[in-house]
Automatic annotation (TrEMBL):
Region feature Disordered, mapped onto this chain: 291-347
GO biological process: cell projection morphogenesis
Gene Ontology CC: synapse
Bias-annotated ranges (Basic residues): 315-324
Domain Chromo, first and last residues per copy: 2-282
Annotated transmembrane regions: none
Pfam family, one: SWIRM-assoc_2
PANTHER family recorded: CHONDROITIN SULFATE PROTEOGLYCAN 5 (PTHR15381:SF1), CHONDROITIN SULFATE PROTEOGLYCAN 5 -RELATED (PTHR15381)
Record protein name field: SWI/SNF complex subunit SMARCC2-like isoform X2
Gene3D superfamilies referenced in this protein's UniProt entry, alphabetically: BRCT domain
């Protein structure tokens, strides 16, 4: 039996990046680099596989140096969607062109993201990447307006968090990217979302975890139809407009040192929680079927979700919040319709 659950941390989904389908996606990125970054890559031209391996190393460096368990991280973690933007001239192209340029300027023969002696320069390299993403409009830092009905103590905390992570706080709703509403309880059946699929795997996003905790699982979800295109940081809010999210979006940012997924916290103009069309409940995951690739590796045809254990059980704000979709120290499903609590099995 397989288990579908959030990853224990924000390490890369190696199986995703090493798959032949993903390696093929790097062809457009490689071609763009050879054309627009020739000066810095011509001495050792990258291959699709070498670029995929390098991206895995970059994501792992973020986890080890900017992750939630790091005390006083020097930089807010770059959004995972930036590393999934394979479009020519997109976020991933600018990430890689920036680090190749930095490597050349430093006179490095190769990248070394594990060496303690290079720690400071590697962090500086990531700072350069963040600047390049912003300059090329591949990353927009949030400009938020906090509504007056948000508790004063929460308002103060949200302001401090947003500013510390290089966002800005506006006194009016004009030209903002986000409007912050009071904290609300999650919907009962919020557990995960299927955000991308291939014939053999589904990319699952887990409610109230950052995108870096998304899992790449060999299962097929029958209750929803996940997109067949990867999520992109450039997508923004579908249909345009302003994100309306609860204060928990900012409070959770501080816990993970990573901008959270707005769709987990989205509310309407009245502050009522929105229902996402790709939302998946525990029951949905229990009825999910393992793909042939998954069955081949696990010897099972069905995928059973487990209730993960994480520090999400901690109080997430100054108000008590029901976190039924989040993991608990003692597994339980709260108000969910299903009372089944199957044992966890490792993929």
């Amino acid at each position: 039996m397989m288990s579908a659950q959030p990853k224990k941390d924000g390490s890369p989904n190696k199986q995703f990046f090493e798959s032949s389908e993903t390696v093929a996606l790097f062809e457009g990125v490689r071609t763009w680099l050879l054309k627009n970054c020739k000066k810095y890559v011509q001495t050792d031209p990258p291959t699709n596989k070498s670029l995929a391996s390098l991206v895995v190393q970059l994501i792992q460096f973020q986890e080890e140096n900017f992750g939630k368990n790091v005390s006083k991280p020097p930089l807010t973690r770059l959004p995972m969607k930036c590393f999934l933007d394979f479009k020519p001239g997109g976020a991933l192209c600018h990430i890689l062109s920036t680090i190749y340029k930095y490597k050349s300027e430093q006179g490095w023969r190769r990248f070394d993201l594990q060496s303690p002696s290079r720690m400071d320069r590697n962090v500086e390299m990531f700072m350069n990447v963040e600047k390049a993403l912003i300059q090329n409009k591949c990353l927009v830092m949030p400009n938020v307006f906090i509504r007056s009905d948000v508790e004063k103590s929460v308002q103060s905390k949200v302001k401090e968090i947003i500013k510390r992570h290089q966002g800005t706080v506006s006194e009016t709703e004009e030209d903002v990217t986000h409007v912050i509403y009071p904290v609300v309880d999650p919907l009962d059946e919020e557990y995960a979302r299927a955000v991308y699929r291939r014939p053999s795997h589904t990319l699952l996003h887990w409610y109230y975890f950052p995108d870096s905790h998304d899992s790449w699982d060999p299962i097929e979800i029958s209750t929803v139809e996940p997109p067949e295109t990867l999520p992109s940081v450039a997508d923004g809010k579908k249909g345009g407009g302003v994100w309306r999210v609860t204060a928990s979006w900012a409070l959770d940012l501080d816990q993970y040192n990573e901008w959270m997924n707005e769709e987990d916290y989205e509310v309407d103009e009245t502050g009522k929680k929105k229902v996402h069309k790709l939302r998946i409940s525990v029951d949905d995951l229990m009825t999910a079927t393992g793909t042939s690739a998954g069955a081949a590796s696990s010897g099972a045809g069905a995928s059973t979700p487990s209730v993960p254990t994480d520090d999400k059980a901690k109080t997430k704000s100054t108000k008590k919040r029901k976190k039924s979709p989040s993991p608990q120290p003692t597994p339980k499903l709260g108000k969910r319709k299903s009372n089944r609590n199957p044992p966890a099995h490792t993929l």
